[in-house]
């Protein structure tokens, strides 16, 4: 829609998040900012009322109601607002902020589980209860209370438990649907890393193990499902995509081979040279000279 806006975090929120690992704020209006989709390194729980579409992994979520929404850095998402009318609260935190808490609670929550819904529509009673939690977090976050971080973590876990009560983890997904979803999320995570914009921001997910950890699944399970759905092993998808990006950088950028190697996550240029030759049959320098 022509009147839609893409929401990103304002600078004052990201600054606070970087310093403290936690931020809670009230949503009063849509921030009219258009920016390219970027990977996020934070978790977010939103309680809001509005008319919008959320693109979350392979799901398209159309909303025109009061809802609770969970997002995490492993699954890319974009929120597109269709009107300027929006109100509610957002709680944003890093994984480090929750360090030491009960990992089982987090891993079984909508923040971490692959294949479960991140969206919960709320009744009036649920909205009132969750609103009280957010208001408590707002008051505590701005207070001098010595143990406020512990209290804030308790509030986050309380919201998670409330969501789990609304919609327990579903057991009805067929193996085929689960396989397709996990394979798609792997492909989406792989593609979202590109293009590489700067050698100073190197590729973070380079191995099947990296992707398995990001999706909170065992590497053998991920490999089996990706091969089952796409016909190719996980490692082949990764190698082909890195090689494609390497070719593009060699052809269309003035980066040195060393910069390209580092940007693609190789510790040493020699490793990149050997990798590129094994995958493409040519060395990076000879490929660049051909200007294919």
TrEMBL record:
Keywords: DNA-binding, Transcription, Transcription regulation
Gene3D superfamilies reported in the protein's UniProt record: Homeodomain-like
Pfam families, per database record: HTH_18
Superkingdom, natural source: Bacteria
InterPro entries registered for this protein in UniProt: Homeodomain-like_sf, HTH_AraC, Tscrpt_reg_AraC-type_HTH
Domain HTH araC/xylS-type positions: 180-290
Molecular functions per Gene Ontology: DNA-binding transcription factor activity; sequence-specific DNA binding
Protein name: Helix-turn-helix domain-containing protein
